[in-house]
Specification:
The chain is of the alpha/beta class. It has helices at residues 34-45, 73-84, 125-131, 148-158, 200-215; strands at 9-14, 19-22, 25-27, 49-54, 66-69, 89-92, 99-101, 119-121, 137-144, 163-168, 181-187, 192-198. The longest helix has 16 residues, at 200-215. It starts with 8 loop residues before the first strand and ends in a 7-residue tail after the last helix. The model has no long low-confidence stretch (mean pLDDT 94). It binds cytidine-5'-monophosphate.
Length: 222
């Protein structure tokens, strides 16, 4: 369960991971890192001690934040494992690429000689840490293209999260990059709050307020 005080040491992950297929090609997703960087900046502004583990992004490193760069899901897992124990809370905004090459090629893969690629799942990083979180808080993020609230709720239990920030993509609602988004904050007690048309800085502020209240153990309706 959560600590009885506001989390001071905050571990944030941000951005996509990149899974190399060969020396010049990779598998990834559309994450820009905006959300995680906004959380890191806002946490720092509140005087918290922040470590930001970041996948490849075009964003400026936030001042006053310990920044750790990673590329692949495997590297992200290693960095998270190293940092997790020293923090009070993990806010996992990283868009981990779910698949990686079973055997990345040392040479550029030949188009004419290759008809399909053999992929395998990446490890569920936050799920593994959630299982061993003890008195730390763990908040996940997710992005769905359908049944976003139901799927988000399932992930809270499956990944041992204290809460999740659910996002969705539709042709009318593209949440990537610097834009206003609709999100839902769901906690492990079944409470839900939908936030509409918020900037990522606004979401970050509300998320950190929410994390503080979860840490204080308030089972109030959020
Ligand atoms: O991709 P998914 O919707 O399962 O992501 C939910 C949460 O799980 C996110 O916080 C994401 O960072 C995390 N995740 C992870 N390892 C993966 C996939 C997702 O930690 N391989």
């Amino acid at each position: 369960m959560a600590k009885l005080f506001a989390p001071h040491k905050i571990l944030v992950t941000a951005g996509p991971t990149r899974e190399m297929l060969d020396p010049v090609r990779f598998l990834s997703n559309l994450s820009t890192g905006e959300m995680g960087y906004a959380v890191a900046r806002e946490a720092r502004r509140r005087g918290r001690k922040v470590t930001l583990i970041s996948g490849p992004t075009a964003l400026k490193k936030p001042a006053g934040v310990r920044w750790v760069g990673i590329t692949s899901a495997r590297e992200l897992e290693r960095a998270c494992r190293r940092q997790f124990a020293q923090n009070d809370i993990l806010i996992m905004t990283a868009a981990v690429c779910d698949f990686t090459a079973a055997k990345p090629s040392k040479q550029k893969i030949s188009r004419t000689k290759t008809h399909s690629l053999h992929l395998m799942q990446t490890p569920d990083i936050v799920g593994g840490l959630g299982r061993r979180k003890r008195n730390r808080l763990v908040i996940g993020f997710c992005l769905e293209t359908r049944d976003w609230l139901r799927r988000a709720r399932e992930k809270i239990a499956r990944k041992h999260l204290d809460g999740i920030v659910a996002n969705y993509y539709s042709p009318a609602h593209n949440p990537f990059g610097k834009r206003r988004i609709n999100t839902a904050f769901l906690d492990a007690f079944g409470n839900a709050r939908i936030l509409k048309k918020q900037s990522k800085t606004q979401v970050a502020r509300k998320l950190l307020d929410w994390a503080d209240s979860l840490a204080l153990g308030f089972r109030k309706k959020i």
